Amino acid sequence: MYSKEEQKKAAAWRAAMEVKDNMVLGLGTGSTVYYLIEKLSERIRGGLNIHAVSTSLETEALARRSDIPLISLEDARTIHLSIDGVDAIDPDFYSIKGGGGALFREKVIACKARRVIWIMDQSKLVPSLGGRVLPVEVPPFAVPYAEEQVKEAGFIPKLRIKHGNVFVTDNGCHILDLTGDAAMDYPMAAVRLKAMTGILETGLFDDICEKIIVGTENGIEERFHH
Ligand code: 5RP
User: Fold this and answer.
1) Best substitution site from 33, 35, 86, 120 to test ligand 1's pocket, by max atoms within 8 Å of Cβ?
2) Ligand 1 closest atom vs CA 31
3) Does the pTM of the predicted model rise above 0.85?
4) What residues contact 162, with CB distance under 8 A and at least 6 apart?
């Protein structure tokens, strides 16, 4: 039986083998991606030649310490592959991200990437996204208005606090963690949220990944989008 940490590491290390010479890689954010960076660093020391575009300042700092060559989004003509974690994913590969607060940059990079792979431990597989926490990114000025709007849409908003302070994203915004009804259709609700003035982006990701790599209690599972 593999522990949760072992599951994350196994999925991340398997995903690291998808990275090939001369790729530009979208590098996600979070504790699962931490293991990806660890393995990529080892492969780079062994001669792998890649460049990475980071989805957060946290990942950027870690990548620098791990000697992973970074380029800006501006300099990345193509992102061949993006690898990132998720907070929850349903059987149709719709997912929620943003637990680490990097959802906006993660979405930009996933949308630009030719291929997307999500990596995770098995706790992230859920039958339905309804009822879960869905983060949205909001510029500070718009927070009170966004709170009113999301309540009208049926969500309970909670301003994210970290270490006693209001959480600030890499884009200078705040996060509202929204909880909706278990029966709510989150992909539909996210379209409505995205259309609200004041909401920069939602943590609802459509089925844009081609494959998920899941570390389970019994080993690694790969599931493909169909
Ligand atoms: C950050 C994210 C992460 O990918 C997500 O929270 C998963 O993180 P972890 O691998 O630590 O469980 O969306 O904004």
Assistant:
1) 86
2) 11
3) yes
4) none
In the chain, beta strands by DSSP E: 24-27, 51-54, 79-85, 88-89, 95-96, 113-121, 133-138, 156-159, 161-162, 165-166, 174-179, 201-202, 204-205, 211-216, 219-224
Amino acid at 142: A
> Which DSSP state fits 68?
-
Question: Do the beta carbons of residue 11 and residue 214 sit within 8 Å?
Answer: yes
Q: Is 106 a catalytic residue?
A: yes
Task: Tally Cβ neighbours within 10 Å of residue 49.
Answer: 11
The Cα 175–Cα 167 span in angstroms is 7
7-47: per-residue pLDDT in tens?
999 999 999 999 999 999 999 999 999 999 999 999 999 99
